Amino acid sequence: MAGKTKKKSAKQPLDTRSKMYIVLGICSLMLLVTVAISFVLVGGLDLFASAEAESNAASDSESLVTESGYDKDQNTIDKDAYSSTILEKSDDAGQSYVDETLFLGDSNTARMYRMFDYCSYDNAIGSVGMSARSLESFACVQLKGYSGYKTMPEAVALMQPRRVILTFGTNDLSPTNTADNFIESYQAGIEAIAEAYPSVDIIINAIPPLGQKHSNESLTQQQVDEFNKALVEMCQKKGWKFLNSAEVLKDSATGYAKSGYVESSDGIHLTRDAMEALFEYVRTHSYITEDDRPTVKNVAVHTGEKDVVTFTTPVVTTTAAPDSTASSESETSSSSTAAEPTPVPTQAPTQVPTQAPAPVPATPEPTPVPATPEPTPVPATPEPTPVPATPSPTPETTVPGNTPPTSPEGNESNPGGGTLSQQDQTNPEAA
Questions:
Q1: What value does the CA radius of gyration of the chain take, rounded to a whole number of Å?
Q2: Which in 11, 92, 100, 346 has the greatest CB count within 10 A?
Q3: Environment class of residue 393 by beta-carbon count within 10 Å: exposed (0-12), middle (13-18) or buried (19+)?
Q4: Strand 124-126 with 101-105, pairing
Q5: Edge-to-edge strands of the sheet including 124-126?
Q6: Across the chain, which distance is largest between two alpha carbons, in Å?
Q7: DSSP assigned state of 142
Q8: CB count in 10 Å sphere of residue 248
Q9: How confident is the model at residue 92 (pLDDT cuts 50, 70, 90)?
């Protein structure tokens, strides 16, 4: 017995239940690891996106400039002194008042209907980069049934609106431009409208305010205020009405545009919130006179326009009105020369040049025409009788065939309104 050795007891194999617990534990552990990794990845992506957004915002902020030395009280407008000129608060004139009005201006006007829905092609014309000095002469309006482009004064005469509201001036801002020069050129354009269509009521809108930070160091709110003060003085002298919309768009504490009223990317172009406030102001500062327009008929339809400049980052959409093709413009924002896209003659009258074949029946006998040119037998044959009879149809048949078609004049009331070859834009990148 003493010599016997103890045998080691063999290990008992794990039963099925134990194995199941182990597998379950491993799966649970793997699930926890997977969830942890997912949280880390998602959190990392969010942090990355947030950092990228902050970086872009910082980059945009760095590209904007801040005006220094601005005095918001220096060029305030005395409402009492211009009470007969500045439109006072009125009852809301409603959408019909807006529909009867033709809005003319630069990119902020273009945004009214190309980007937002406060106007349509029927009652607004905006040319991106256009200045007040171009109002009289820049042919930029495309009208259905008229080839080429018309100036805004010509378009007013053809569209026959009850009133016009003009908003120009942002692209005239420049350290080298004076208020006197601005008023002189603007007034010439407005007078051209009054002369083209004397029945229209004229309202001059204030130049919109800038953001405290904006993308063009040549633009200053100080000059905006100075130009607006000069505008109300011009309106009083000429008997035009002044829409002082700047008072609803400006922050009374800073003198700049209210927060959220200009695009954060440039501090110049009005946002949808600003447009909402602007059009409410338009309706509640209405100017309604007796409609003395002659019978309105054959009203021209605005189908497109030509911009002075096109931006790398669009400030307006390029959607064209129905029955029109959007104009293609130059992509140089620093050039003062307006792009000259090939005018799209919308519904240009196909003037009857196809009627040219009409003279053909005048030839009495077209059959002998190809057979007549036989010069050889004329001198050689001794029979003179048939020779003189055949040549006579030859000149008669060739002449009518070369008769030029009637000159296509179309139904344009003013075919002389050609396109402008060059624009003197001080700050085309502004609006």
A1: 37
A2: 346
A3: middle
A4: parallel
A5: 124-126, 101-105, 163-167, 201-205, 241-243
A6: 166
A7: E
A8: 17
A9: very high
Is residue 210 a contact partner of residue 257, using CB atoms and an 8 Å limit?
yes
How many other β-carbons are positioned within 10 Å of the β-carbon of residue 409? 9
What's residue 314's pLDDT?
80
What is the pLDDT, as a whole number, of residue 401?
A: 38
| pLDDT score of 168 more than 70 | yes
Helices and strands, counts by H and E, the chain: 12, 10
Torsion angles phi and psi, residue 301, rounded to 5: -110, 125
Please report the beta strands in 168-324, taking only residues with DSSP state E, as ranges in sequence order: 201-205, 213-214, 241-243, 302-305
Locate 342 and state its tokens: 């090939």
| Residue type at 88 in one-letter notation | E
Sheet holding 150-151, edge to edge: 150-151, 139-143, 302-305
Backbone dihedral angles phi then psi of residue 241, each to the nearest 5 degrees: -95, 145
Q: pLDDT of 250-282, one tens digit each?
A: 999 999 999 999 999 999 999 999 999 999 999
Is 0.70 surpassed by the pTM of this model?
no
pLDDT at 414 over 50: no
302-349 tens-digit pLDDT = 999 999 988 777 888 765 554 444 333 333 333 333 333 333 333 333
User: What gap in Å lies between CA 108 and CA 398, rounded to an integer?
Assistant: 59
Measured CA to CA in angstroms, residue 179 lies from 172, 191, 228, 243, 270 at distances of: 10, 18, 9, 18, 23
> And the tokens for 370?
């190809």
Tokens 């760095």 belong to residue: 62
Provide the pLDDT for residue 259: 96
Residues 415, 351: Cα–Cα separation, whole Å: 14
